[in-house]
Amino acid sequence: MHSNLLWILLLLSAAVGAVAVARRFKLPSMLAYLVIGIALGPHGLARLTESAEVDSFAEFGIVFLMFSIGLEFSLKRLQAMRALVFGFGSAQMVLTALGTGLVTALAYDQGWRSSIAVGLAVAMSSTAIVARMLSERFELHSRSGRQTMGVLLFQDLAVAPCLILLPALAASGDDLLRSLAVAAAQAIAVLALLIWAGQRLIGRIFDAAAQYKSSELLVLTTLWIVVGLSFLTAQSGLSLALGAFVGGMLISETAYRHHVEADIRPFRDILLGLFFVTIGMMLDLQYVLANGHKLALAVALLIGGKAVVMLIITRVAKTPLTTSLRTSAQLAQAGEFGLVLIQLALQLQLISIGVFQITLSAMLLSMFIAPFLIERAARLSGDLGRGDWAHKATAIHDIAVHSLDLGQHVVICGYGRTGSRIAEFLTIEEIPFIALDVDPQRIAEACMHGINVVFGNADRPEVLQAAGISRARAVVVSYPDARSAERVVRIVRSTRPAIPIVVRTTDDKDVARLKAAGATEVIPEVLESSLLIAAETLVQAGIPMKNAIQHVRAVRAERYASLRDFYKAPKK
């Protein structure tokens, strides 16, 4: 009992410290859990040892991950992105798996079954890392972001067939075709039955549970469905994760989808973290260090090969070079499902321990490198196609044409909701402006209404020059990303030391940094929304509107230096 408690305390202590460091450097928590497993596992400090109990809990992490993917599965979403999902996604999966399989067969002298297993594992990319980074960079709906998410969605859908295919590959040569046929027929029959019954029962079960208005009952109902369907698929000779995926997919079609997703996240994150710890525990550092040359080659081939595959696919589809580079970098790493498949391949004895160690190490290193590679690729490619001089000259010329007749105008950097509202106010006051944005759809919609919005990234000096920064009366930076906003402020301030620069930020914590960069005024959205909520609360509590407004004025006068005289309470 005490030894188990000590084990839990050690694991929790390591998790708290490692996850805190990962968050500090804006890295996925998954990488922190992997480091814990590597450092404390049997091949590291040997403080953690593998056991059946740990493996069972870790397997449930995969169950809940597959359940979450099922919740995200939407026929409408699939229909809207079908060209990207089944075009780009299938091409990436097939080409990467074939290329990796060929390298595995030639370099490691492995059979074709082993080559397929390794190829399928390496073909997967990390949804957790990439989706998080694209969301933070507000690039999920950019062209490269849509292409990347389309490929990731196909990979998520391909996990279920892979979980069926690998056990069939492990069968003997004489039984392979029969095993594949039986596995496919069995999977189709079981899944069809579960889906048919689930569509008729899941909604009713949740309706009945919701009548009691108990969050606890809804959580228990969700867990019952996840574990129950996983048990049924496991009893049918399929994987636990496949049943969980079906459960998530069925619940996604009900009105309880978002509520269930929020309730299940703590279970998923903790158990999935334990799974990544067990993956890290499998890594033999001594073996890896002794075969460093093989590992370096494997990492280079994995990252470079996956990037080249996506570059070819996107260029064949006539995607601009800058977008192709971003998409390629975003998918040039292994993924969490790849770790699941490579572990399964080892358990089924499809691959040797040596192949497993080198492949696992290369996959983990690619995931560590991924955030830095994506960031670097975004900077190198740029939004105007640095290195692509023809495209760059055309874009600069287009910006210059739109600003040619402007003087004493306002340059709006970012034409989202905030930028468009600023443009409305400027239009009412008949103040000329030019807005810079990188979303083609948003630009097209604005141009249809005669609004002066052009394609361009304001963190490039030549773009700001073309927008007439030397003649402008003010600059507004409405980017939600504080890092991008800071770059723009520094460029503007180096060109026009005295021009007013108003910057929007989402949180108070970035105000000092943006001020130090040269912003005239920084407007934190959190502060403004909190002031409005506080004022409305006072009014609803019976405080006169005049008093509530005076409180708001006092805070604004303290925070906004340039408007201090305006916000001071009037003398009585």
Q: Any key phrases for this structure?
A:
single chain, 572 residues, mainly alpha, Na+/H+ antiporter like fold, Rossmann fold, 2 domains, six-stranded parallel sheet, 6 strands, globular
Can you walk through the features of this model?
The protein has two domains: 2-381, Up-down Bundle (Na+/H+ antiporter like fold), CATH 1.20.1530.20; 389-519, Rossmann fold (3-Layer(aba) Sandwich). It is 72% helix and 4% strand. The protein has 26 helices and six strands. It has a six-stranded parallel sheet, with helices on both faces. Strand 4, helix 22 (482-495) and strand 5 form a beta-alpha-beta unit. Helix 16 (336-347) runs antiparallel to helix 17 (353-381). The chain is globular and about 80 Å long. The protein starts with a helix and ends in a 5-residue tail after the last helix. The model is unreliable at 383-391 and 563-567 (pLDDT under 50).
Number of strands: 6
Described by the principal axes of the CA atoms, the overall outline is globular
| N→C terminal distance | 72 Å
Total of domains:
2
- Strand numbers in spatial order across the main sheet: 3-2-1-4-5-6
Regions with little confidence, pLDDT below 50 for 5+ residues: 383-391, 563-567
Task: Summarize the biggest pleated sheet.
Answer: 6 strands, parallel
**Could you say what the CATH topology of the largest domain is called?**
Na+/H+ antiporter like fold
Helix content: over 70%
By secondary-structure content and strand pairing, the structural class works out as mainly alpha
Overall mean pLDDT: 80
Number of helices: 26
Give me the CATH architecture of the largest domain, please: Up-down Bundle
Radius of gyration: 27 Å
Multimerization status: single chain
